[in-house]
């Protein structure tokens, strides 16, 4: 079943390929010089288009945009992660229109992303009412659109974000702080583009896809309370560790420049839910008769989420095998784990019916979830949130195995961008027996987990067979978690 679960993951990633999503969202009628966005908004264009972009997916987005409106594009500037250019064969015509910057190594703003942002600011500030600005936004955009407010240095901002990240701050918290420290995030890019018609095409990497959080909302009006950034610092008790200028900025209550946003339209063209629905469809296609999306709002500590998936795996396996002396007790355990994964409580009844159907017909089950977890770094190892989640699951199921002679259970967690933390892996996959196999190989899974060293564990274990090494995918809509239950000898039952 290892191959099948990898194919389900691949289907999810393929569904959110940037070029595919852009092609679905925008078309241009060349004869009439009209651009249509998501079949609802039309713009007349005549060699007056400008394109900017920032994020892990925007080179692919921009290349597709250029095939659609290149004949109307005057200039484009995109800011992308270091090393992305080498993954593409870029047409000469594209390079004549676009300036490409690479920066933000390890998703930390740097001098290269600062230079790209200054170039974007200069171009956007010169636009006229007759111009059209397309803004391409994807995951990683916050680090690639870096322009600290006047009194701050880039180093000040880097230190602040690193402190928050290591403390386990989630993306909403990180981006609230970033907005306060930036002169272009939190709607300030849209203010700069006024009065040009501004259209943002957004690929979400944030739970629930709130537009004001994705890439710190550069084209969306900032509604954060003035003191929100400082409250986040206080929550993680980082006041004494902040650079003095950052502390002053975050605690200030300077008035906002609340201009109209009537010239701006924001379009969400893809999200984690898009990927989850594609995974569900593919699982059904390859023989998982019973499939379900648990939640696209999974967040929290990766280690704890791994434990909750282990609890679900153990409980569901026992229910499928009809080893349920106390049905109420099992449903209670399932409900607690599901609640920790932000599963709608009403869905637990549906889940019980699915499990009962699998038990009665011996058909396979696939449960899918998505979101973005965090890791509070305590050790000195190398890892990422998905690998840590899978390692936590492996450790948690060691004493109470979920698989049996009748039923095989496999768990996968991976990022849709193909990059999990500062590693070359997208994630990992685990199944029954790995804990004992690792010990026989001289590896202690719990020690690696406690040292936040999930990458090296999966790299060494079984020569990396359970690592997911896909290479960068060109997209980023957070993470995919897949839990598959496969009968080893399915009963021939007609449904």
Description:
- The protein is built from 19 helices and 15 strands.
- It is about 40% helix and about 20% strand.
- It folds into two domains: about 250 residues, Rossmann fold, CATH 3.40.50; about 220 residues, MOFRL domain (glycerate kinase, domain 1, 3-Layer(aba) Sandwich), CATH 3.40.1480.10.
- It is globular, with a radius of gyration of 24 Å.
Write the layout of secondary structure elements.
Blueprint: H1 2-15, H2 18-25, E1 26-29, E2 34-37, E3 41-44, E4 49-54, H3 58-69, E5 73-81, H4 92-97, E6 98-103, H5 111-125, E7 132-137, H6 141-144, H7 154-166, H8 171-181, H9 188-193, E8 197-203, H10 228-235, H11 244-251, E9 264-270, H12 272-285, E10 290-301, H13 302-320, H14 327-340, H15 347-361, E11 365-374, H16 385-396, E12 407-415, E13 427-431, H17 434-440, H18 445-450, H19 454-460, E14 467-468, E15 479-487
Parallel strand pairs: 4-5, 4-7, 5-6, 7-8, 8-9, 10-11
Antiparallel strand pairs: 1-2, 2-3, 11-15, 12-13, 12-15, 13-14
Helix pairs in contact: 1-12, 2-3, 7-8, 8-10, 13-14, 13-16
Secondary structure: helix percent? 40-55%
Terminal CA distance reads: 23 Å
Tally of helical runs:
19
Number of strands: 15
Short description:
The chain has 495 residues and is α/β, with parallel strands linked by helices. It has 19 helices and 15 strands.
Provide tags for this entry.
glycerate kinase activity, globular, Rossmann fold, alpha/beta, ATP binding, kinase, glycerate kinase, domain 1
């Amino acid at each position: 079943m290892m191959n099948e679960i990898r194919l389900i993951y691949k289907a999810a990633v393929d569904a959110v390929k940037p070029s595919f999503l852009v092609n679905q969202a925008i078309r241009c009628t060349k004869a009439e010089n009209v651009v249509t966005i998501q079949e609802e908004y039309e713009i007349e264009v005549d060699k007056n288009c400008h394109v900017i972009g920032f994020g892990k997916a925007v080179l692919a987005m921009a290349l597709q945009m250029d095939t659609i409106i290149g004949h109307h594009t005057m200039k484009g500037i995109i800011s992308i992660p270091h090393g992305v250019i080498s993954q593409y064969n870029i047409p000469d015509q594209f390079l004549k229109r676009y300036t490409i910057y690479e920066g933000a190594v390890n998703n930390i703003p740097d001098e290269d992303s600062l230079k790209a942002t200054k170039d974007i600011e200069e171009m956007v500030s010169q636009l006229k009412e007759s111009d059209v600005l397309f803004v391409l936004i994807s995951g990683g955009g916050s680090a690639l659109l870096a322009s600290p407010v006047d009194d701050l240095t880039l180093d000040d901002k880097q230190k602040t974000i690193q402190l928050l990240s290591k403390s386990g701050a989630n993306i909403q918290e990180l981006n609230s702080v970033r907005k306060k420290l930036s002169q272009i995030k939190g709607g300030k890019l849209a203010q700069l583009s006024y009065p040009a018609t501004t259209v943002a095409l957004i690929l979400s990497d944030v739970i629930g896809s709130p537009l004001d959080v994705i890439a710190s909302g550069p084209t969306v009006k900032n509604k954060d309370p003035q003191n929100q950034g400082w409250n986040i610092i206080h929550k993680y008790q980082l006041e004494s560790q902040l650079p003095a200028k950052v502390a002053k900025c975050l605690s200030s209550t300077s008035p906002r420049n609340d201009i109209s946003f009537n010239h701006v339209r924001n379009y969400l063209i893809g999200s984690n839910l898009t990927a989850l629905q594609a995974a569900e469809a593919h699982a059904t296609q390859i023989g998982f008769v019973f499939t379900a999306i648990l939640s696209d709002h999974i967040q929290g500590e990766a280690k704890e989420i791994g434990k909750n998936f282990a609890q679900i795996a153990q409980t569901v396996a026992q229910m499928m095998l009809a080893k349920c002396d106390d049905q109420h007790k099992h449903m209670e355990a399932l409900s607690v784990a599901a609640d920790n994964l932000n599963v709608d409580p009403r869905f637990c009844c549906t889940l019980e019916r699915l499990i009962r159907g699998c038990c009665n017909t011996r058909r396979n089950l696939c449960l899918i979830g998505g979101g973005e977890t965090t890791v509070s770094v305590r050790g000195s190892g190398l890892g990422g949130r998905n690998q840590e989640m899978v390692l936590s699951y492996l450790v948690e199921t060691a004493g109470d195995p979920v698989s049996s002679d009748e039923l095989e259970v496999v768990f996968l967690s991976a990022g849709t961008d193909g990059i999990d933390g500062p590693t070359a892996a997208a994630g990992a996959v685990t199944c029954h027996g790995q804990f004992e196999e690792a010990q026989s190989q001289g590896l202690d899974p719990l020690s690696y987990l406690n040292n936040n060293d999930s990458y090296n564990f999966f790299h060494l274990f079984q020569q990396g067979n359970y690592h997911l090494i896909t290479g960068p995918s060109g997209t980023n809509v957070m993470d995919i978690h897949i839990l598959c239950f496969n009968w080893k000898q399915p009963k021939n039952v007609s449904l």
